[in-house]
Structures are given as C-alpha cells and as structure tokens.
Amino acid sequence: MTHGLSIENDQKAANVQLSAKEPQKHTIVLVGIMGAGKSSVGRRLAQELEIPFHDSDDEIEKAASMTIPEIFETHGEEEFRRVEARVIERLLEEPRMVLATGGGAYMNEATRALMQKHAVTVWLKADLETLWRRVNKKGGRPLLKKENPKKVLSDLLDQREPVYALADYEVVSEDGPHKQTVDAIRAALNI
Questions:
Q1: Does CATH place domain 2-175 in 1.10.260.40?
Q2: What are the average pLDDT values for consecutive 10-residue runs of the chain, which has 191 residues?
C-alpha cells in the first residue's frame, strides 16, 4: 500500500511540474479512448489556434501505405503499436501542433513519457454511452471486431482510464457541437 501511495504522489508531483509547461509554446496532444472526439475536436482546435493538426492514425496509414484495419489484419496489433510509437516520436520532434492520437497510444509507457516530456497532454474523457453512440456510427475499429463490442469498449475504458488520468489536463467530451469541447480545452489550457 505504501509503495502505491509513493508512486501516486510521485506522479502527482510530476503532473504539477508538467502542467507548468506553456500550452502556447508546446504541442498539444489529445489522448483518450476511441470515440472521445480527438480527431474532430483536434482539427477545430488547431484551426482556432492557427497551428498544424496531425492525426497519428492518418500518419501511420501514410507510413505503412495501409489502412489501420489492414495493418491489424495483416501484421497484428503488436506491429501496429510498434509503428505507432515510431510515428508519434517523429511527430513530437516537429514544431508545435495539435496531435490527435489513437486510443492505445498513451498506454505505451515509452510513448507516454515522450508525450509528457515534449508536449502538453489533454485527456478527452467521455462516458461509455456517449462513446458507444459515436463508435457505432463508424466502422473500422479493429479492437471492436469481436463478439459483444460494447462490452469490449467498456472493458477497454475500465483498463485505460487510470492511465489516461495521468495526462496533464482532463476535459469532458460531451455530445453537442465540437466547439463546446474546443472551448473547454482552451479554457483548461488558458489559451
């Protein structure tokens, strides 16, 4: 128990230090589970801030000359995660931008450490019902191509939320105009 508290306190201290980074000067990385709105909100945030927008999934598809579902089907999730980590590392070396990441990117400890070192991270948080409505509208979610996909999504959310909570900022992504979430991010980051 004491060890867990020590780690938790160390992480809180690190988050306080990370939060001191200036969002006006650093890349803003949006993290969260599929359906949280990282890409759609990220595009609009970048437009408002007049900085470039990149979606790590789009960049992975360009680098691999394959779609994400094709990468999963042909090479498996492990290879996808390896490519994802390399692509995000490259993107974090570029000038300031808004970067939307795939839902599993922040789970990789090395990738998360790079994000925390070189960027300001924002967790777009949404409840299960909101997420389910959103992902149900679109296909192409390899991790949900299983029996009882809503249960899979629920389990992923339960597993990943404690890690997403390590982000510098947390912003709720609710149904409604994307502008609402963009405004909430800007208010949280004071930009």
A1: no
A2: 37 44 85 92 96 95 90 89 92 96 92 93 94 76 71 91 96 88 93 88
